[in-house]
Specification:
Elements: H1 8-13, E1 19-25, E2 34-41, E3 49-58, H2 61-68, E4 108-116, E5 128-131, E6 134-135, E7 148-149, E8 161-165, E9 169-171, H3 178-181, H4 185-198, E10 205-208, H5 214-225, E11 229-234, H6 239-243, E12 249-252, H7 258-266, E13 271-276, H8 283-288, E14 290-298, H9 311-316, E15 320-323, H10 330-340, E16 348-353, H11 357-366, E17 372-376
Parallel strand pairs: 10-11, 10-13, 11-12, 13-14, 14-15, 16-17
Antiparallel strand pairs: 1-2, 3-4, 3-8, 3-17, 4-5, 5-9, 6-7
Length: about 375
């Protein structure tokens, strides 16, 4: 891959350094593929792009899965963060196509717009923004065949500076810190997209798997915002903090008798919606507690992507299954409004300096945290 060129005279005029610190992914594999560089070329904004001086950037499962090659159809086991030996070269990214290296990952960038390319909205300069990570054909933004992801199909936010189309940023008026804002974009928009696909409303009972993680904790808050009854599933050690997010009940991860536990917790042994980001061997148990006409929505499979399904259960109980990845353009704007109205809150587990991204990702993979982990450009 040819590195994006930069213009020293332009940067000097704008008081922008010609090089920057960045963590660069050099290929698919283990964490050794993440290399900290202190003198990486600072990108120049192209047409319709803004240059953001990044202050914080959140970590997400997609960073780990892309780096390790887990998205490849040759991989059938749970995601571990280790590199996989058998990874097809043409399908190891979220979009099912090869990505180019070197690549700067990191989707949830927060920072200040410091420069604009031709055609970009110059009123954004000096504003604190967070990134909308879905890269679109802005002449037809609903066309899912023409999408990419920030930090995958183009360089992202694990760097001191990054560029993105000006229509992919949102100005946020909030008292939250930059690190707190960096917990939202990927996890909360993913959760909102899942709830939209499932049509969740105030009459629903929503069962949330992986409730202590970034997407799971977002699902709790966003489903409660819609007025639904929410049952969260998490390891017992995390029940206290998960309970503070407001679910109606918190059950054990891989609850042995899920129907009995639901009956005791909410008064009936089924739910209308399962919002799943875990998958794996527990999948049939989740399907068994869906009420007739229920909906299953999925945006992850960290416990394993290959599951067992009795098709008679699907059609005899009139169930609806939805996958949720590419989001409608309005989801990001809705999320920004929820933040500004304080209808949702961040769950910042820990912040690491950028140079310690490998350590941060190892902590993320260990899943001992609750909420989101971010890196900052301080230190």
């Amino acid at each position: 891959m040819t590195l994006k060129t930069y213009c020293p005279e332009w940067m000097d005029k704008m008081n922008i350094p010609q090089t920057m610190a960045a963590v660069v992914l050099t290929g698919h594999g283990g964490v050794e593929k993440l290399v900290y560089e202190e003198n990486w070329p600072t990108p120049t904004p192209g047409p319709n792009e803004v240059l953001i001086k990044v202050s914080a950037c959140g970590l997400n499962n997609t960073d780990v899965n892309t780096r390790s090659g887990w998205y490849s159809k040759t991989v059938e086991e749970a995601t571990t963060g280790d590199g996989y030996v058998k990874v097809a070269k043409d399908d190891p990214s979220w979009g099912g196509a090869a990505i180019t290296f070197p690549r700067i990952q990191g989707a949830d960038a927060v920072g200040i717009v410091v420069a604009c390319g031709k055609g970009a909205n110059r009123e954004l300069i000096g504003k604190r923004v967070m990134t909308d990570n879905w890269l679109r054909d802005w002449d037809n933004p609903d066309d899912r065949s023409k999408t990419g992801y920030f930090g995958s199909e183009r360089d992202g936010g694990f760097a001191e500076y990054t560029t993105i189309d000006f229509r992919n940023v949102g100005v946020v008026e909030s008292a939250m810190s930059d690190a707190e804002l960096a917990t939202f974009s990927c996890s909360y928009s993913t959760a909102e997209g899942m709830l939209n696909r499932a049509g969740v409303g105030p009459r629903d009972q929503v069962l949330v798997t992986g409730a202590s993680g970034g997407v799971g904790s977002a699902l709790i808050q966003l489903a409660k915002r819609r007025g639904a009854v929410v049952v969260a599933m998490a390891s017992e050690a995390k029940h206290g903090v998960v309970g503070e997010l407001g679910p109606d009940a918190v059950l054990l991860r891989n609850q042995p008798d899920l129907k009995a536990a639901l009956e005791q917790a909410i008064g009936h042994d089924t739910v209308t919606v399962v919002a799943d980001i875990v998958g794996g061997d527990y999948f049939p148990t989740l399907i068994d507690v869906l009420a007739a006409g229920g909906r299953y929505t999925c945006s992850g499979a960290i416990a394993g992507p290959v599951v067992s399904l009795d098709l008679r259960t699907l059609y005899l109980r009139d169930l609806t299954f939805t996958g949720s990845t590419i989001l409608a353009p309005q989801v990001f704007g809705d999320l920004v409004s929820y933040i500004e109205k304080a209808e949702i809150r961040p769950l910042l587990a820990k912040a690491f300096p950028l140079k310690n991204l490998v350590e941060a990702q190892q902590a993320f993979i260990a899943k001992s945290h609750i909420g989101n982990i971010v890196v900052t450009m301080e230190g």
